[in-house]
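Quick question, first post here. What does this chain look like in 3D?
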Amino acid sequence: MSLPQVATKPPGKSWRDINQERKALKRQRNEEKIVKREKKMLLEKELEEKVKEECEKEKKYAEISTVSIAVPGSILENAQSAELRTYLAGQIARAACVFSVDEVIVFDDIGDKLNTKKSKLEDGDGVIVARKSCVQLARILQYLECPQYLRKHFFPIHKDLEFAGLLNPLDAPHHLRMSNDFKFREGITMNKKVKPGKGSQVNVGLLKDVSTDKLLNPGIRVTVKMLPTSEGGKKLKGKIVSLATPRAETGVYWGYTVRIANNLSQVFTQCPYKDGYDLTVGTSDKGNPIDDIPHKAVTFNHALIVFGGLHGIEAALESDEQLQVNDASLLFNHYVNVLPNQGSRTIRTEEAILIALTSLKAKLKPNNAPMVFKEGGIATSSIYSMQKNYNSAVADSNVDLSKFD
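> Answer (accepted):
Ran it through. Tokens below.
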């Protein structure tokens, strides 16, 4: 049987001194615990404030005024060949990019009255089944908006994109090259193993993937804010942000989104913005002259401009059973004729988009317009850079070009 251990007093110390030392040690430990608890509370408070600040920022970004256009997919059916159908879609994409359109809606203006072929398109919300011409137009619009280095990941070989190589590039600011040094980039989350607590690796079109702050499923398109790297640091770090953040922080145009509506009513009812479109404009040769609208007289948060097909918006209204209205002008705040006294009997939709956006630019006034982009780092015109490189190459060479004059 073992005897209980008895505390022995260290030599040269009294029990009183030992007890005082123990009390002091206990007091020190308690103070350390209190300091640790306060630090933890402070960190939690800072984190809470940071999250709150981020939420406020996101809310502020969501309030930036936007412009959406709605285009009927049936216009592709009027083209004579597959090449012309593709080129027509490219013209619409170019117009949307040039005028900094935020959303392009492709709607079916014919409906199910005619037995037409259906097709499928994968979207952020799932797989959408719609009229074949609508799906093809939406697919080409998405393809052209996507940065070149991401296209192989999101667009497998498809018949709708057979002649996409003929199309003019958008040259949009977010189509960054490897040499461009801009703080935002579009990327795709990669299927790579990461350490616990770390975020996804994202391919943003650079030689190395970027380590981010959020762990997401592979194959998702994300917008990444590039973080400054430490001196000598090899790893690229970034933060995943919303699609609206680049334009809100810098004012740079960051492309458009695409959605499909199976009829005219879905153009309005499936609006992605919380409070819907507060300004709707219909375009028709039966509308009021656009010059009747005073300069910068129409304010908006989210504007929607709807274009008709071969038979106009009236035909789209007639084919939509959900809209119980006889007069198309009643659907819109403004029903305008963008080019009164036109020389041709008809204005093609791709032409009407350019004319309408040009005319309305002077009439509309956004309540919360994005700031003017004044930073550097984005891609310059490819034509300009090629010309510049050619001129510098000629200047550097000593070749006699007089025989070509």
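Residues 190 and 218 are 5 Å apart (CA to CA).
Confidence is low (pLDDT under 50) at residues 382-390, 392-397, 401-405.
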